[in-house]
Amino acid sequence: MQGLAHQLIAGIATGGIYASVALALVMIYQSTHHLNFAQGEMATFSTYIALTLIQAGLPYWVAFLATLVISFGIGVFIERIMLRPMQNASVLANVGVFIGLLLVFRNAMGWIFDYTIKAFPTPFDTGTPLFGGLVSGHELGSTAVTLVVLGLVYVFFRFTKLGLGMRAAAFNASSSRLVGIRVGWMLALGWGLAAAIGAIAGIMIAPVVFLEPNMMLGILLYAFAGALLGGIDNPGGAVLGGFLVGIIENLGGAYLVGTELKLTLALGIIICVLLVRPTGLFGRVVQSRV
Amino acid sequence: MMQRRTLLAASAAMLAAPRIGAAVTVGVTATELKIGNFMPYSGPASAYGVIGRGDAAYFKMINDQGGVGGRQINFITYDDGYSPPRAVEQTRRLVEQDRVALLFHTLGTPSNSAIVRYVNQRRVPHLFLATGADKWGNYQDTPWTIGWQPSYRTEAQIYAKWMLEQKPNAKVALLYQNDDFGKDYVTGVKDVLGARFDQMVTTASYEVTDPTIDSQVVSLRGTGADVLVTAATPKFAAQTIRKVHDIGWQPMHFLSNVSISIAAVMRPAGPERGVGIITSAYQKDITDPVWNDDRHMQAWREFMRKYLPEADMSDSGYATAYNVSFTLMQVLRQCEGDFSRENIMRQVANIHDLEVPLLLPGIKVSTSPTNFHPIRQMQLQKWSGAHWERFGDVIQGADV
Amino acid sequence: MDAGRDRIGTGIALPAAGAAERSAARPLRLLGLLGLVAVAAVLPPLFASSYQLFQLTLALIFAIAILGLNIVTGFNGQISLGHGAFYAVGAYATAIMMSHFDLPWWETLPVSALICAAFGFGIGFPALRLGGLYLALTTFSLAVAVPQILKYKGVEDWTGGVQGVFISKPDAPEGLGLDADQFLYLVVLAFAVAIFLLAHNLLHSRIGRAMRAIRDHSIAAEAMGMDIARIKTRTFALSAGITGLAGALSAIAIEFVAPDSFSVELSITLFVGLVVGGVGSIVGPLFGGVFAVFVPNLAESISRAAPGVIYGVILIFFLYLLPQGFAGFPQRIRALLRRRPEG
């Protein structure tokens, strides 16, 4: 019984990781209706930027903010330069660009920063492990950060004009244009925000799993599963979904399918959700019109 | 399974049968000897690319000193990106297009597994592979293939032997990567514990795609084990060291020799967290000042300054390249000008207590027609919080 | 300007089964094709070294695999990023049949293709409910999970776990005077010709038109009474079967299968080959196959440090500047020539 509780706590701790990436995925879906396959690599790249800044001597939180700004810029830049010309192209062409970005980012990171793992500092107290060491101060702190970001995202989409405009632009571009929303910039803004949230996720994850170019490959799948489970258009749902996937993965790995098939478990979750309840647990049903 | 085994055994018997007729010499001219190699110069394993660069530099030095048997060495090395199909392609390029005399120091268990049958059918010497899988010592089935470093299985035997001396009634937890590398450790521990394995040991595996191994560590601690054997690659080793420390578990902790890099494992994990961890060594630690006055270490540093001036002097890959290339040169000198593939293999299986410059004192390279495990000894060492401290005698692997 | 082309809903231009193709030039083209096949069958075995033949064999195998992907993605509009999974299943099926049941290689090929088709049919069902992006996501996840599934303990007796399975390349039948590499090359070439012709005929048949109609105007197609579910699942099955056959051939050519050979990179390679060769083109996959085999070596010689970056840049370059891939070259040039007199 104690083992079960331990696995549960460990699952929630890893779930926090998935939740933060899932949030970034939802962000980009909310604002562009695309799923960015390069999201993980872009987040990892941002994390390397943060590490470089910290090693250059900047205080942690300064480097943190600077990284967010830079990542935002990279996101906007990629949208304007690479995705704008693809605006009216097929889904296939867009997926192609995402895969291309994934290849470029992943290999460029290996080339620039090499593949050995790097330790990443944490701003949170790690001296006193909680729950008998099952949750580190960092894990608790990063979960808090994820929740704060979630709150900001909620407020942004719900109560600001800009957020509303972004939702409108993604939902129905031509109608939005008619009411005076600058759709193009809304998309770019969405990419920028998603890149910045991805950067936060990367910075929070790196101290746990260590930084290396492929850091996000496995995590991205679990995050996809979490986002779908919670509802791809619902930030709160995606965060909850991320935690759920963490718990399911750990309990399933320890008691059900064994540790060998954990990734397959994520695949199973994705397929099940899409088949049984494509909107996820908390998503809204959207009827598409012809 | 059975059928495949018999099939393999049958083909092996064919391969091992003495060959009648003239010896085959390929890749050797009056002035040149061609040696082939592949390495992961790109992709996730590209950190190992330094080994290929080290080998190339060593042969350049040999050439500057007049080569071997009056011939210059032409070292051809390609990128396989750590992908088995690419390794097959590059091997065929080396063997069929470049027509090399032998393959040397090819890296990676999956890549070498993919080509081992091909090279044995073609009877190409496949020497001193840069992988510690135990199967390269299988002289009966693959007589043209030989490893070099102590196998992971030997290493695990050494840990298990020493552990039994210290804690005869230990309860062991074994965490391993689910592949050839990790499973060799399970086999090695089994070799020593025998029938007691099931009762003494609990195992847990992880996949390289797992984000963390927290769940496995928590499960293993739950068994009440007082000994932990970690057969993990650097990223997961660092995670394990940290987690074990953070949950307040204090087992006697053995760590795979693959993951003892200070820069890539101990420092990221937090040096203070790993105090007391036991691992093993067979090479001199090039960063340890204890060897400053060692004649061979000085020669190696001289070599590095001259042939690899830009290289990172703390990367042990260069020491490995130096040692393995040294071993190959011994074989080629023993060939005394007869570089037929048969004679090369004969000399490969004819190394007696060779002292290699950067191996620890007391550890020697030996082979025979029935021993294709050139190095079978290691010395234990312990993490002090700042560096590895060797202790005890050189230990030999179990005879199985 | 681009007469006879269809840009609706795809953005990537695709040749339509236009009237122009049913012109009087047909017998001539057939003759030309036969000539081409004859040259391909005779020249390389005569002049290429065994290593070069091996590379050509691999290129043809990749071409077949990419054709399979093209059928489902290019012609039917269902994006798959996980065709490496079918390739893997085909390779393993053949390897297991050859090593465990001692079946001759040629008997295993149709069986492997059928197994993959059935597998594809099974995947095709959920795929029905998954629109473009979701299908891409699911198949991408499948591609990432493949090595893990292949390693699974429960099937280790068959798959050999991480150790993989070794098989042997067939020797040429006696009397032909060919060595094993030459023979295998000819076998693969024969398969490639047969499958490309089959695909060509299929795509210009009623079913092929239905496939494209579903891609371009699925709701209209449904309104016209097409059984979309049936066509989509069958297309997926056919596509998986063809890619699986390529996987089976690759197992024979490489003589070894192991989980590490079928990582997510394989699926990405197939996808890149598809885009670079030409989405929705019959000959495109041939270029894609050549690209998949020869460009990594080329990229290695350009930059040993990061061939992957070059690969990604080439992919993006094609998406922007040559969305029809290599297969679109002749039309581009023709369009340029045609325009010049007017201008």
From TrEMBL, chain A:
Where does it live in the cell?
Cell membrane
Q: Which GO terms describe its cellular component?
A: plasma membrane
GO BP, sorted A to Z: amino acid transport
Query: What Gene Ontology terms describe what this protein does at the molecular function level?
Result: transmembrane transporter activity
Family annotation (InterPro entries): ABC_transp_permease, BCAA_transport_permease
Q: How does it sit in the membrane?
A: Multi-pass membrane protein
Similarity-based family: Belongs to the binding-protein-dependent transport system permease family. LivHM subfamily.
The protein's name is Branched-chain amino acid ABC transporter permease
Automatic annotation (TrEMBL), chain B:
Note whether Signal occurs among the keywords: yes
Residues in the signal sequence: 1-22
Q: Family per UniProt?
A: Belongs to the leucine-binding protein family.
Q: Does the keyword Ribonucleoprotein apply?
A: no
Taxonomic path: Bacteria, Pseudomonadati, Pseudomonadota, Alphaproteobacteria, Acetobacterales
Residue span, Leucine-binding protein domain: 33-384
Which named protein is this?
ABC transporter substrate-binding protein
Q: Which UniProt keywords apply?
A: Signal
Q: Which SUPFAM superfamilies match?
A: Periplasmic binding protein-like I
- One Pfam family it belongs to: Peripla_BP_6
UniProtKB/TrEMBL annotation, chain C:
* Family matches, as InterPro entries: ABC_transp_permease, LivM-like
Top-rank taxon, per record = Bacteria
From which residue to which does the signal peptide run? none
On whether Secreted is a keyword of this UniProt record, the answer is no
Membrane topology field: Multi-pass membrane protein
Keywords on record: Cell membrane, Membrane, Transmembrane, Transmembrane helix
Pfam families linked to this entry: BPD_transp_2 (PF02653)
UniProt-annotated location(s): Cell membrane
UniProt name for this protein: Branched-chain amino acid ABC transporter permease
